[in-house]
Amino acid sequence: MGLTHSVVMGVAGTAPSFSIAASAAILIAETGRFAPAIILYCGLTMLGIAVAFGRLNRDDPNAGASFIWVSRIFGPTPGFLAGWCVLVTSVLFMASATIPAASATLLLIAPDLERNPVVVTMVALAWLLAVSALTLRGTSVTARIQSSMIAIELGVLAVIGFASLLQLGPQAARNFDWSSFSLAGLDPDQFIGGALISLFLFWGWDISLNMAEETRDGHQASGLAAVLAMLVLIIVFTVFHGVALVALDSTHIAAAGTNLLFAVADTIFPRPWSLLAVLVVMFSTIGALATTALGFSRTLFAKSRHGVLHARWQQLHPRWNTPHKATLLFAALGATLLLASLAMEDVARVLKIAITAIGLQAAFYYGLTGYACAWMHRHGRGGALDYLFAVVWPAASATALWAAALLLLIREFDGVTAAIGVGTILAGLVPMRLHRHRRTHPK
What we know:
By secondary structure, the protein is an all-alpha fold. The chain has helices at residues 3-13, 16-31, 35-59, 66-74, 76-109, 117-136, 139-168, 170-175, 188-202, 207-210, 218-247, 250-256, 260-268, 276-306, 324-341, 347-376, 384-412, 415-426, 429-434. It has a single domain (3-438), classed as Up-down Bundle (Amino acid/polyamine transporter I), CATH 1.20.1740. The two termini are 21 Å apart.
């Protein structure tokens, strides 16, 4: 891959349209008119983590990314858990994203079947297998397809945003409030809840670093791609939440649920043009599933190569040169969870738990990597500006992420969410202990 494809992968890894559809209504319900401010400042915090990833990648472009860097700087246990979180969040996202992708597909081609759980699950399974087959073929094929889908997705989001403002006209001006971009007056509980939801929105850009070994000039290009992807995402997410607050009142936003993007489009365009919003959500979800599969397989490959998991996961396909067994494991786990989802009734509840758990685990391993960068460069030999970007910003961002996660745990985590969010991190200690005797020097 080149720089452009690496940026595309970083943007696609966050699934912009799906993330908006899945969590925007929840975020606005939590923070009200301050949603754009939460997005903006949390985005700047995450940008500090992206800078940290880029600095660490400059010295060691590695498919394991966080896992390898944290292992070298803080030791094998924190490093293993950082990599383990990447694996767990990938599986959680896959479980929460395939169902909406299937629902969007059926809404476009067979609306009468969109609420049939068996049909939805089968379509989701078909998408999962198709995406897994695509990622088995390698990154170049995946990156070319992702570029086309991201171009369409961002284009439609821009059209929806501009059309909303043009159609509403003076009403948009009256509804707009600059205080939406300020944290003044925001309740601390609102900030904590909104911050962790924002983590889900921004999670996934680090796929650019997992692909560094497969990127031209990866030690420079992958880190730059992550930063550029974050800048694009901050703009897209902040602007769209601002547009949603202008275009819809609180009642319509609450009623939209996980279809806020479609709700905004439906107020602007007549049918069937408003269904373009459904199409981009489907593209976004499928694209993110592909990048998630890549991130899972590359992290598992790196952990196996490092000797902390079984050697089978580092085996490469003789023709496509991809970690095919790791990709097949991702597909198998996904198929199992999809079939298990047939027994679940409250999809919205499952989605909210997954979003919160992903936010918590992302805060853990992003924060750990931010601290690793700050510790590695703590002597500040590169001057004041280098110290700001390599130490101060990453450490401050990591502290903010961990503080938000800890405060949310104290405030409102129920047993199920805590078991998924925290329990699955601690579960990583089991395979770590089982394979401790296989550990090798980092590569």
